[in-house]
Amino acid sequence: QDHLITATQLSRDDIEAVLDRARAVADDPAAYADRHAGTVLALCFFEPSTRTRMSFDSAAKRLGIDTIDMGDVDSSSVSKGESLSDTVRVIEGYADALVLRHPSEGAATLAAENVSVPVVNAGDGAGQHPSQTLLDLHTIRENHGLDDLTVGIMGDLKYGRTVHSLASALTNFDVNQHFISPPSLRLPRSVRFDLHETGAQVREHEDLDDVIEDLDVLYVTRIQKERFPDENEYHRVAGEYRIDADTLEAAPDHLSVMHPLPRVDEIAPDVDKTDHARYFEQAHNGIPVRMALLDTLLENADPDADEGIEVDR
Ligand code: CP
Fold it and tell me: Above 0.95 for ipTM, yes or no?
């Protein structure tokens, strides 16, 4: 069964196949309408979400897929103490695929081991968020292409799951990556290990000014307050990596500023009016990219389908 659990499992071919399909979906959405009528997608969110939950819901409906939503943890039987494995084993009987967000790293892997329908990891704690990465890559590709690039990733690199997935996926392309963060929020050891395994260099900086002139893309992230075991530690780093229109005067004209959103104060509103701002376009790209992803996973799950694109097995 195909699942999308981690970006480390995506090859360049896998990524390009989904992004090519996302481009085709964006060019001609009507050709994809009702393609999967009669199928059901379960949305299982054990943590808050606006973009991921709603864009999967919207993407599914645009493909003719019905959606069922587990609802908030407080209104589901999780609040009675039901385990994750029991919960997903029940839900697989109600749906043809499952999108899961959970506060624990490894939750999507556990879910995939317990069900026989495709599972998409929509964020597992501070682990991975691979469908976000696909829409990030789509946004980069549509604006810059995906080779011969210099990308800066800034903010909470320790707890930021979108960072972990994006950094890994970018190793499939000819991209120089620079990581900008306070010392306490550098990339975790497991992510560094994965990057080193691919031969990628981990270039780290504390100051954006060191690299801003060289960047094609600046990917800014929120400090993940909810992941800090000690709130005092959060307050020590909160607000340190904030950019505004003045910050970007040193950047090349073509620089794209991206952010997975939600933002708190790390990108000042005056950046929204500049030609650098890509974060709302990025969020909207969740529709064609998640349509392409669901289309691929459901096509591969259908034994009668005569073509398929491998996402992960
Ligand atoms: N980017 C992202 O995952 O946003 P949500 O938490 O709103 O889904």
Answer: yes
